[in-house]
Structures are given as C-alpha cells and as structure tokens.
Write a structure and sequence with these properties.
The protein has about 130 residues and is an alpha+beta fold. It has helices at about 45-55, 115-129, and strands at about 5-15, 15-20, 30, 35, 60-70, 75-85, 95-105. It is globular.
C-alpha cells in the first residue's frame, strides 16, 4: 500500500482551533486540520509553513509538535504529523477549501472530521481532561 506523508496545522486562536472543509478530491466536503503533503527534501515544519501559505494565504508560527497519526484509508496509508500553530496574519483567505470555522473545545465533536483528523481530535480531548 502506498504511504502518503502529510503535515497538519492545529491553528489556535484564543480558545478555538481552525477547522477547514476540503474543496476538492476524494474527500471533498470533509473537515480537516489544514496542511498537506511533505515534498521530497522538506522538513515537516517547512512543508507545513509552505502548505498553509498556499492554502490559506497566511504565515504561521509553529509552537509545538503535537502528535503523529497513522491511518489506513482504503487506497493508501497516511502518516500525518500535527503541530500546534498560530497565525501571524490577521486574515486568512481560503484558496483550496470550501469553508472554515473556528471551533471551541466543546464543539470539536460536532464536526464531521475526516477519519485521521478524528483521531487527532480524540487524542487532544484526552490530553485536556
């Protein structure tokens, strides 16, 4: 099975995190933490900064590594490195997503997350308790 390595930004502002809704592809309409594929020669951190700039047109600061999730989708194995980040710009622009929303801790389970992102949410909730 093919393995895809990606990075995801858990962008935090005050007490909320940013959720984005995919605008294309097989998982269109699903909610996720923004990010994307790590290209050859990139570190996960540099890939994350590049992907967020491409997708949301904002600069981010990476605060801390959060977790790596391994998940088997039917067509591929996903390795997703997750980082807590903050936006350095005030306004984001959706370039590849249908929608975005800021979600509080209490609202995290109300989102229809993609499978791998759901694992991240569950692990985050366990650490907060």
């Amino acid at each position: 099975m093919k393995t895809i390595e990606v990075v995801a930004a858990i962008i935090v502002e005050e007490d909320k995190v940013l959720a984005t809704q995919r605008g294309y592809g097989e998982f269109q309409g699903g909610w996720e933490f923004p990010g994307g594929k790590v290209e050859f020669g990139e570190t996960p951190e540099s890939a994350l900064k590049r992907e967020i700039k491409e997708e949301l047109d904002v600069e981010i600061e990476i605060d801390t590594y959060v977790d790596t999730v391994e998940y088997d989708y039917p067509q591929f194995h996903l390795t997703m490195h997750c980082y807590k980040c903050r936006m350095l710009d005030e306004q984001l622009m959706l370039k590849e997503h249908e929608a975005s929303k800021w979600v509080s801790q209490d609202e995290l389970n109300e989102i229809d997350w993609l499978a791998a992102d759901r694992i991240v949410v569950e692990r985050m909730r366990k650490r907060i308790k």
